[in-house]
Amino acid sequence: MKEQTLAIHAGYDKDAQGTMAVPIYQTTAYEFRDTEHAANLFALKELGNIYTRLMNPTTDVFEKRFNALEQGGGAVGTASGMAAIFYAIANVAEAGDNIIVASQVYGGTTTLTGHTIKRFGIETRYFNVNNPSEIEALVDEKTKIILFESITNPSIDVADFEAIVAIAKKHNIMTCVDNTVATPILCKPLTLGCDIVVHSASKYTTGQGLAIGGIIVERENLVEMIKGNPRYAHFNEPDESYHGLIYSDLPLPPFTLRVRLALLRDLGATPSPFNSWLYIQGLETLPLRMKQHSASALKIAQYLEAHPKVKSVNYPALKSNNNYALAQKYFPKGTSGLLSFEVESKEVAQSIADKTEIFKVVVNIGDSKSIITHPASTTHQQLSSQELIDCGIPAGLIRLSVGLEDSEDLIADLEKALS
Domain containing 331 — which CATH number? Predict the structure, then answer.
């Protein structure tokens, strides 16, 4: 099936009532046929619902539909995008290991990998996403994953998938891509050789700022990389917490299965059935919305590029942008609704944000409503001056999440604020 059809139908076989809309299965627990059925489910001899912390019929449709759009091999929902990123790391790394992360990532990812993860005994090593060759010198036998964003937030750089994947494959290391900004509509990292994709479903997936959630998707046949790989010994050895189960021996997607059976089981950052239902509604219109977000963002980027008070504009679809060639290579259908631009100073940037009327001062992205943010004083305020520079966030940077309003109205709003 084509993408738009998958977005509406994938993953849902109608229930006994024949409901056209996916039902909300708002339940914590499920009745087993008998004790043998219950025992078989817990032993993975049969597949089915055990407890909503692990799986739920509504969430199952969300996972299957998203997996189909990403062309993946398996997916698991989480309670937030940050939970998805943390689980992706915790699923492969332990005390004494290290991970390699792009400097240009979302501020929450920077604080997680630069500060919180240290308390778990995991070291983070950073590379410039615009210079993937830096990765090579950071790799050692304890490196477990390379994490980057397909389109960075808020510096709006485009990752060179081919270059990063080549280094990862050379050393047999997993790659994990945060594809939140691009969505599976504009980019499918798993088809470009990447291993894991994570998303904040709170953004473009829901599309209206209605719910917090995330998802992890693994590529088809990831088990072939995991099987016998000394970097991922715990996938190849008996899990004593699950009766000696060996993940790489099962005929199921090993990465997301371990997230479900170990991390969701023990840490519990599970999406609620109602939130999963909201994501399903959002996915039905995601292909249409991403086309409009991208078209309007390009018009606004072109307007800002010509404005005398704007020092620079970060939007990969602009021919003048350093990322233009990579955007044409990896994002032929558009480069999403996120852009940023730099003005003279922090004070000027904050003044512009305060003057807009349609653009609202909010620290979210991917909403149908347009949003303006000053990252240095909000989403990335916790970073030092040097960390801000490393992330590509000068003091005068303004981030826009272009919504679905008429682009002429949005340009008029910015014109007034810039005057």
Answer: 3.90.1150.10
Domain range enclosing 54: 10-274
| Same domain (yes/no): 213, 109 | yes
Number of domains, the chain: 2
Question: How would DSSP label each residue in 336-393?
Answer: -SEEEEE-S-HHHHHHHHHH-SSSEE-S--S-SS-EEE-GGGTTTTTS-HHHHHHTT-
What SS3 class is residue 66? Answer: helix
Cis (ω within 30 of 0) for the bond into 154? yes
User: Quick one: the chain helix, strand, coil %, rounded to 5?
Assistant: 45, 15, 40
pTM over 0.85: yes
Please write the tens of the pLDDT for every residue from 128-186. Answer: 999 999 999 999 999 999 999 999 998 899 999 999 999 999 999 999 999 999 999 99
Tokens 């679809």 belong to which residue?
317
Q: How many residues does the chain have?
A: 419
For 283-300, the pLDDT digits (tens) are 999 999 999 999 999 999
Are 239 and 307 contained in the same domain? no
Q: Which of 206, 213, 183, 384 minimizes the C-alpha distance to 281?
A: 206
61: closest CA among 125, 121, 9, 98?
Answer: 9
